[in-house]
Amino acid sequence: MQIQRSPGGSLFPYYYKNGELFCLHFGGYFSDEEKLIAIMKAEETFLLRGHLTLGIWIDFYDTKLTDRVVEALIEMLKQIRPKTTRLGIVGCSLMARWKINRWVQKRMHFYPCR
Q1: What is the torsional sign of CA 81, 86, 91, 97?
Q2: Would you tell me which of 23, 29, 79, 91 could form a disulfide with 63, CB atoms 3.0–4.6 Å apart?
Q3: Domains, the chain
Q4: What is the chain's mean pLDDT, rounded?
Q5: Do the bridges between strand 19-25 and strand 54-59 make them parallel or antiparallel, or are there none, so unpaired?
Q6: What are the angstrom distances between the C-alpha of 77 and each of 2, 24, 28, 56, 108?
Q7: pLDDT tens-place string over residues 19-71
Q8: What is the pTM of this model?
Q9: How large is the C-alpha radius of gyration of the chain?
C-alpha cells in the first residue's frame, strides 16, 4: 500500500507494532474551534473514502476541548465507527477525558478510553 498524507498532515496508514493506525493530529489548535472542526470533517471524509478498517489514535495536545469540540468529535466518531477497530485518545486533561468517555458511552456504546 502506498503511504499518503491525510488532510491533517498525518502519514496514512501509520505503521506501529506490526499493525496500522490512522493518526488524527488535532493538537495545536488551542482555542480555534472553527479550524479544528473543519479538519475533523476533512479527516472523516478522507477515512471514509478508504477500504481499510483501522485503529484510530487521536491527539489533542495544546487544544482546548470545549463542549462544541467534544460534540463534533462524537459526531465524527459516529460516522467513522464502521472503519474503527480501536480508539485511543491522548493529550487531554482528566476532566476532558471523563467528558469524552461519558459522551461516547451515552451516544455510541463504546468502551471508555483508558
Answers
A1: positive
A2: 29
A3: 4-93+102-108 (3.30.750)
A4: 86
A5: parallel
A6: 25, 12, 20, 10, 8
A7: 888 899 999 999 999 999 999 999 999 999 988 888 999 999 999 999 899 99
A8: 0.83
A9: 13
CA 80 – CA 34 distance, rounded (Å): 20
- Grid coordinates belonging to 87: 480508539
Q: What one-character DSSP code corresponds to residue 81?
A: G
Band of the pLDDT at 108, cuts 50, 70, 90?
low
Amino acid in position 84: T
What gap in Å lies between CA 88 and CA 55, rounded to an integer? 8
5, three cell numbers? 498524507
Residue 43 C-alpha cell reads as 479527516
pLDDT at 11 over 90: no
Q: Can you read off the three cell numbers belonging to residue 13? A: 496508514
Q: Would you mind telling me the total number of residues written for the chain in this entry?
A: 114
